[in-house]
Specification:
Blueprint: H1 3-22, E1 34-38, H2 43-52, E2 68-72, H3 76-83, E3 87-91, H4 94-103, H5 120-133, E4 138-145, E5 151-157, E6 172-177, H6 185-200, H7 205-213, E7 215-219, H8 224-232, E8 243-244, E9 247-248, H9 285-296, E10 300-308, E11 312-314, H10 327-345, E12 350-352, H11 364-372, E13 375-381, H12 396-412, H13 427-438, H14 455-465
Parallel strand pairs: 6-7, 6-10, 10-13, 11-12
Antiparallel strand pairs: 1-2, 1-3, 4-5, 5-7, 8-9, 11-13
Helix pairs in contact: 2-3, 6-12, 10-12, 13-14
Bound molecules: zinc ion.
Zinc ion binds next to loops.
Length: 471
């Protein structure tokens, strides 16, 4: 037998068990592949890139609104040149970045948790450590299992100060990350925020006030199967591990939520697309699990869905350009978050709606806001394209501080007595409160978070009412 063939067979035999066992996905390398930043002249340029690349790195799907980043093979550059598509190469060798990232993961090096990216088992064990170290603050929770039967776990974090008025539970703020598998930095930022909350509760008055008032629920790995694929076979996998006609194709979980689902302007109906929305809203166990948990919470007040990259804070709606109710409140909070990040780390983030990214249909923040009324935001973390998804480990803690500043600013900016979200607490809010109060509704006037509207909520509302202003 020819020697080259023998080597090929041996390599195949070595590769087979891992891919067959994990996901039926072949290991993939990205040697000499580039990421180009394109300024499309029109829809024809976008169509050409979708055809030659098929892997858009900026988080949203197609549209001709502005710049977009695509991964392409070296040979594709000639196609772009011939078509006259305007582009610059922002990453010259994707595999080189991945190799450097792997080298930085040296398991024999003595390092702290936030000095490296962490796999599923390590994240799970870290959550156990938090719960063991801060037993009166942290409770691990299990939300359900993924399509390949991995546990989607999280944890509840609040101070031992009891909820208002004897309620069983404080109002909840929900932070999840990693719906998109290759966006590793989100996992670390989620855990960094929680860790800083715990470590600074006794020394930081703002953090103490937040933890005394609210309960925070963290779900660092919303897509554990996809995450596993990015650690074992394909670093740039984005979707979950849904098998279609015998092949792992995956559904884009952040196109699978029920508000604004199914629009071709912000998702794809083709299972080979990286923004495939699935066969129906909530067709995937991972989105069902997060939805069911959110619906089980008596009073959800705010949520952040962490993604990368682009350094953006995005308000609803993501699926349409129509402005959301309460846009004034979103603007106040979103701008405060951007300012807080700049003050803490110097990083420059931008706040806005779909006009600064792209339309994305069937996303988590649109569902959270549209269904529960909670402030629902997306944060696109670092960087702005120098490394894209393969963010160096030296950026983990600085990114964590971006997220921490944004989280504190968001929750500190909640103005819950401003029921009509016009940024003033006034008579109109009192009327709205009274109508919910009179019938003991469990919706907007439930300030204590116990699922009913009663005297406790009246006291809380009156406290906010007397201030006549939002933070
Ligand atoms: Zn994403």
């Amino acid at each position: 037998m020819h020697r080259a063939l023998l080597i090929a067979l041996a390599a195949g035999a070595l590769a087979l068990p891992a891919s067959a066992q994990e996901s039926h996905l072949a290991a993939e390398r990205y040697d000499n592949q580039k990421v180009v930043r394109v300024t499309p002249r029109g829809i024809a340029d976008i169509q050409l890139l979708e055809r030659v690349s098929g892997d858009r790195w900026t988080c949203g799907p197609g549209g001709a609104a502005g710049e977009a980043d695509y991964r392409v093979r070296e040979a594709d550059l000639r196609t772009l040149d011939q078509a006259g598509v305007p582009y610059t190469v922002i990453i010259s060798d994707v595999q080189k970045l991945i190799d450097e990232e792997r080298a930085g993961q040296d398991p024999f090096h003595d390092r702290a948790f936030f000095d490296a990216y962490q796999n599923y088992a390590s994240v799970s064990s870290y959550v156990n450590t938090l719960a063991a170290t801060y037993p009166s603050f942290v409770t691990r929770i299990s939300l359900g299992n993924s399509i390949q039967n991995r546990e989607i776990f999280g944890f509840r974090l609040t101070s031992p100060v009891p909820p208002l008025g004897g309620s069983p539970r404080k109002p909840v703020v929900f932070f999840n990350s990693e719906q998109h598998a290759r966006e590793w930095i989100g996992v670390m930022v989620d855990l960094y925020i929680a860790t800083q909350f715990l470590e600074t509760y006794n020394t930081n008055a703002a953090v103490k006030s937040l933890l005394d008032t609210y309960e925070f629920v963290f779900v660092p790995l919303s897509n554990p199967d996809g995450y596993n694929i990015t650690w074992t076979t394909q670093r740039l996998w984005r979707k979950n591990a849904r098998t279609i006609n015998g092949t792992v194709r995956g559904v884009d979980l952040n196109r699978n939520w029920g508000v604004g689902w199914g629009l071709d302007s912000g998702s794809s109906g083709s299972s080979t697309s990286d923004t495939y929305r699935g066969s129906a809203p909530f067709s995937e166990p991972e989105t069902q699990i997060l939805r069911n948990y959110a619906l089980s919470v008596p009073k959800l007040v705010a949520s952040i869905d962490f993604h990368s990259y682009s350094q953006l804070v995005l308000r609803p709606w993501t699926y349409q350009y129509t402005l959301p109710p309460g846009k004034a409140a979103f603007d106040r909070i979103g701008n405060a978050m951007v300012d807080a990040i700049a003050a803490k780390t110097g990083a420059s983030y931008e706040y806005g709606g779909p006009d600064i990214l792209y339309l994305a249909s069937g996303t988590a923040p649109d569902w959270f806001f549209g269904t529960t009324g909670a402030i629902g935001l997306t944060i696109e973390l670092r960087d702005t394209g120098l490394n894209g998804f393969i963010l160096p480990t030296s950026q983990i803690i600085p990114s964590g501080n971006d997220g921490l500043a944004a989280a504190i600013a968001m929750v500190s900016g909640l103005c819950r007595a401003d029921l009509n979200r016009d940024n003033f607490v006034d008579d109109a809010d009192f009327v709205q409160f009274a109508s919910a109060y009179d019938v003991f509704l469990t919706n907007s006037a439930d300030f204590s978070g116990d699922g009913v509207t009663d005297d406790t909520d009246f006291v809380y509302f009156a406290d906010g009412y007397n201030q006549f202003a939002c933070p």
